[in-house]
Automatic annotation (TrEMBL):
Domain RanBP2-type stretches: 53-94
InterPro entries the UniProt entry points to: Znf_RanBP2 (IPR001876)
Classification lineage: Eukaryota, Sar, Alveolata, Dinophyceae, Suessiales
Gene3D superfamilies per the UniProt record, alphabetical: Zinc finger, RanBP2-type
The protein's name: RanBP2-type domain-containing protein
Highest taxon listed in the record's lineage: Eukaryota
Length: 113
């Protein structure tokens, strides 16, 4: 085995995206470069269009009902993984309504549900 085997990859510039990919794949012991294709940008844009074509899935988001100082509920929409409201810091209640079940005529955080 080569004596320099354990030190290979140290000369790679950590700011270079190609070197990051090479390290992640364990390809640090040689000269590699990723070839850019003419349609890379087009493929990327098509993928993004497809992803956002369906829109954001808010069906599992929950609504914070913690009261503000003026007595009105916070009514902020929160991601399902959050246990606290990102706006007021209130803990998620066990009976917190989901966006799909919320029957308010108001817009939640500026958007109609």
């Amino acid at each position: 085995m080569d004596m320099d085997f354990s030190t290979s990859g140290k000369e790679l510039d950590p700011r270079n995206p190609d070197s990051r990919i090479q390290r992640a794949l364990g390809l640090t012991c040689g000269a590699f470069s990723f070839i850019e294709r003419k349609d890379d940008e087009e493929v990327y844009k098509d993928g993004r269009k497809q992803k956002y074509k369906e829109g954001e899935d808010t069906s599992k988001d929950w609504i914070c009902l913690r009261s503000k100082a003026n007595g009105e509920p916070c009514e902020e929409r929160n991601f399902p993984r959050n246990e606290k409201c990102f706006r007021c810091g209130g803990l998620r209640q066990s009976n917190a309504p989901l966006v799909r079940d919320y029957k308010s005529n108001k817009k939640i955080d500026g958007r109609k549900m």
